[in-house]
Design a protein that fits this description.
There is one protein chain. The protein is mostly helical and about 350 residues long. The protein folds into two domains: about 5-130, Tyrosine recombinase, N-terminal domain (DNA polymerase, domain 1), CATH 1.10.150.130; about 155-320, Orthogonal Bundle (hpI Integrase, Chain A), CATH 1.10.443.10. About 55% of the residues lie in helices and about 5% in strands. It is built from 15 helices and five strands. The chain has helices spanning about 5-10, 10-15, 15-30, 35-55, 60-75, 95-115, 155-165, 170-180, 185-190, 220-235, 260-270, 280-295, 300-305, 310-320, 320-355; strands at about 125, 135, 195, 200-205, 215-220. A three-stranded antiparallel beta sheet has the order 3-4-5, with no helix packed on it. Strand 3 and strand 4 (about 200-205) form a beta hairpin.
Length: about 350
């Protein structure tokens, strides 16, 4: 995203030379436009508050940043009834506040590297050996780690019942999103030459992924049937190679389907199925949890999902309950063996008494 767009969208950035300079560096380093946009939004929100409060952001203290954190955690959301869920019941969700703080923290890291500041007022939660009270330094905002929501079997069937009457494009997108555990961005960015129908494989290009890791993942035979039907239908819209999923609306006929259009489709189906928490990422969560339930190894699931670290994959292991179930089974085996041994001892004692 060109810097001029950032300055036009958030004028406050243009009034702070160091802020816009930092964002230009990230842009020149090739960060994804959506990442730059998120950084710009979070930093602009912080700088706006600094201007309202008469605070020089370069000289801001931890107390000033804490005031910035308090404000979004208590204010009502401007989206009102459109909000699907907010963890705290008021203000922004914990994950959103964490996300808004990231560009502020990185901006101060930049100022430290430039020699403008000596310390970062945002800080980060970290372990420091030798530090009192267990060595853990708490971040400004406690991080809440919650397991992703996945539908029950009955809820999943209810969703599919609603989706069965959808056009072939929407049905195959849902099937691929689950089969290959695709993120929304990866799904909508698929191209015709990413498919290998002969081996039922799909290539997820590095530039479309969150972590810039390319991977090749399979899809099921039933999804292959849906895909073949959609490709025949697609040929009636456009025979050109390129984006796989095309819009069929009057305004955007033959254009690539956008992320927002796909989100609206899934949201409409979720409302119709009375599953307001069902979102575009739910199919990915469900697939990875199912793989964990089937006993796939942690590193294999991470590779399939395109996770840079297995720490991201661990939540699906926890969500599946596999580790807990294994521990319970092993524990019960030991308890059972102990009880059998005690019963055997009882039988031995009884025989000795009869003798």
């Amino acid at each position: 995203m060109p810097p001029v767009v950032l300055e036009e969208k958030w004028p406050v950035l243009g009034r702070h030379e160091q802020a816009i300079g930092w964002l230009r560096i990230w842009t020149d380093l090739g960060r994804a436009p959506r990442t730059i946009d998120a950084y710009a939004r979070g930093l602009a929100e912080y700088l706006d508050r600094c201007e309202r409060e008469g605070i020089d952001p370069v000289q801001a203290t931890r107390e000033h940043v804490a005031g910035h954190v308090r404000e979004p955690s208590t204010r009502p959301s401007h989206r009102g009834a459109n909000v699907v869920s907010i963890d705290s019941g008021s203000g922004l969700a914990n994950a959103t506040i964490q996300q808004r703080l990231v560009p502020v923290r990185l901006f101060y890291d930049f100022l430290i590297e430039e020699g403008v500041r000596d310390s970062n007022p945002v800080g980060r939660g970290r372990y420091t050996p030798g530090r009192r009270f267990g060595g853990y330094q708490r971040g400004l905002v406690p991080r809440l780690t919650k397991l992703p929501w996945i539908p029950t079997d009955a809820e999943w069937l209810a969703f599919l019942e609603v989706a069965k009457d959808e056009p072939s494009r929407n049905r195959v997108m849902l099937a691929l999103a689950y089969d290959s555990a695709l993120r929304r961005e990866e799904l909508c960015a698929l191209r015709t030459d990413d498919l290998d129908p002969g081996h039922r494989m799909v290539r997820v290009r590095a530039e479309t992924t969150k972590n810039r890791y390319e991977r090749v993942v399979p899809y099921s035979a039933s999804t292959g049937v849906l895909l073949a039907g959609y490709l025949r239908h697609r040929a009636m819209i456009s025979r050109a190679r390129g984006p796989l999923f095309l819009s069929e609306s009057r305004r955007n006929q033959g254009q690539p389907l956008t992320l927002w259009s796909w989100s609206k489709i899934v949201r409409r189906l979720a409302v119709a199925a009375d599953l307001p928490r069902f979102a575009t990422h739910t199919t990915r969560h469900l697939c990875l949890t199912d793989l964990a339930r089937m006993g796939w190894e942690l590193h294999t699931i991470a590779s399939f999902a395109g996770h840079r670290s297995t720490e991201s994959t661990m939540k699906y292991i926890h969500l599946s309950g596999r580790d807990l179930a294994d521990k319970l089974a092993k524990g019960m085996e030991q308890i059972h063996a102990w009880r059998i041994a005690q019963l055997a001892q009882l039988a031995t004692d009884s025989s000795a008494g009869n003798a």
